[in-house]
Write a structure and sequence with these properties.
The protein is α/β, with parallel strands linked by helices. It is built from 15 helices and 8 strands. The longest helix is centred in the middle third of the chain and has 23 residues. It is globular and about 65 Å long. It binds 5,6-dihydroxy-NADP (NZQ) and zinc ion.
């Protein structure tokens, strides 16, 4: 196991009717900015519950944060924060609203000329940020309990990530009933994203991480069992609750402590979203099986462990390793998430060449030991036609 430090300061408030807890969680006298996306929170009653809980607190609102939140939009919120003297941010929505708000929190306190530096330095220039409390309505990203955010820039078709200990939410409210209104596409996306967060930390080069492995296997098994239930019955509280808690636990830091993260599927997937606008989880369902097949020899031992413990396979490690990739693809498809670029009408050769060129320009290597060159990435993408 590698050396590590682990700290997660986010208070998680989980369960039915927990939005009312905002009345005590939001600091008294705060000047609050509610941020939200395209309006789902008005259709499912979440906005009403939030406003009721805030009572007569000072509240401004900023809506229109897109899926894959855009720098251009978020900078308008930064201006509003400064004009209104906002001192507390309250994102209400999915990972995009939460991520976008983390950027607003950091950019509002950034005094350099160009806030895109926050992304360019992966958060290195963030020295201060406004406090954030979140109300999550889409279990997927883990953004509710981590210090990460991924921001897109329309002008340059970039999608970049930053991390800072200063943008962990102070608290996050996770009420599974808010997720009843997710359609099958977002429900499937959420399960796949949480699944791939887990495998990106678990299916790496072997480390003696006995407890982390068991955490990961618990999350994967839960998603395989509960995922189909939420698709079949969107108002199944128990299944929604189990999926929500799994997604949070998959990326709050504990499970991956002491492990070398792979993150190749995320790195490649972000480029596919930047170029083609694909939903985040849809890129992962395409890329992950390709990464695994390309690195079958290196990852054989871990894939075999995953196949034996999570899918109950037995036999030769080499056979289990390749069989479990097929089972994983079939699981993603069963969640309604396609695993091939062709299903989105995207030319794999063109996509491969574009991403290769970008990674070459950035001198970016992918994978837990940096062994995937831009040329390897191109081959992986082409294999996913
Ligand atoms: O915008 P609204 O109207 O709210 O609708 C959203 C949006 O259209 C809708 N939605 C959310 N909650 C709903 C709902 N519809 C009905 N009922 C509800 N309860 O769902 C759509 C997608 O929302 P979005 O927030 O974009 O999805 P998700 O949570 O999957 O977030 C994706 C973003 O997070 C980033 C991704 O790259 C992507 O930009 N990620 C963030 C990570 C992190 N912070 O750690 C890690 C992830 O790997 C990921 O990269
Ligand atoms: Zn993800």
């Amino acid at each position: 196991m590698l050396n590590f430090e682990f700290s997660n300061p986010t208070r998680l408030v989980f369960g039915q009717d927990t939005i009312s807890r905002l009345s005590t969680l939001v600091p008294k006298g705060a000047r609050v900015l509610i941020t939200y996306g395209g309006g789902s929170i008005f259709r499912n009653g979440v906005h009403k519950a939030v406003r009721a809980a805030l009572g007569d607190a000072f509240v401004e609102e900023f809506g229109g944060i897109e899926p894959n939140p855009r720098f251009e939009t978020l900078m308008k919120a930064v201006q509003l924060v400064r004009e209104k003297g906002i001192d507390f941010l309250l994102p209400v929505g999915g990972g995009s609203v939460l991520d976008g708000t983390k950027f607003i929190a950091a950019a509002a306190k950034y005094d350099g000329a160009d806030a895109w530096e926050i992304l360019r330095t992966t958060g290195g220039v963030v020295k201060s940020a406004l406090p954030i409390g979140a109300v999550l309505t889409l279990p997927a990203t883990g953004s509710e309990a981590n210090g990460s955010a991924v921001i897109s820039r329309e002008e340059t078709t970039e999608k970049l990530h930053f991390w800072s200990p200063l943008v962990y939410p102070v608290f996050s409210i996770l009420d599974p009933t808010t997720t009843f209104t997710l359609d099958s596409r977002q429900t499937g996306n959420g399960v796949v994203d949480a699944f791939v967060h887990t495998t990106e930390q678990y299916v790496t080069v072997h480390q003696d991480s006995v407890l982390q492995d068991r955490f990961a296997e618990g999350i994967l098994t839960t998603l395989i069992e509960e995922g189909p239930k939420v698709l079949a019955n969107p108002s199944d509280y128990a299944a929604r609750a189990n999926v929500m808690w799994s997604a949070t636990m998959a990326l709050q830091g504990g499970m991956g402590s002491g492990l070398p993260g792979d993150w190749a599927s995320h790195g490649i997937g972000h480029e596919l979203t930047a170029f083609y606008g694909l939903d985040h989880a849809r890129t992962l369902a395409i890329v992950l099986p390709g990464v695994w097949r390309h690195q079958l020899e290196m990852k054989k031992e871990r894939l075999a462990q995953y196949g034996a413990r999570v899918w109950g396979l037995s036999g030769e490690p080499a056979w289990i390793a390749s069989r479990v990739i097929e089972l994983t693809e079939a699981f993603f498809e069963s969640m309604g998430v396609p695993t091939r670029l062709g299903e989105h009408g995207i030319d794999a050769k063109e996509a491969g060449a574009k991403v290769r060129a970008r990674f070459t320009e950035r001198n970016a290597k992918q994978g837990e030991n940096g062994s995937l060159s831009p040329e390897d990435v191109e081959k992986i993408i082409v294999s996913r036609a």
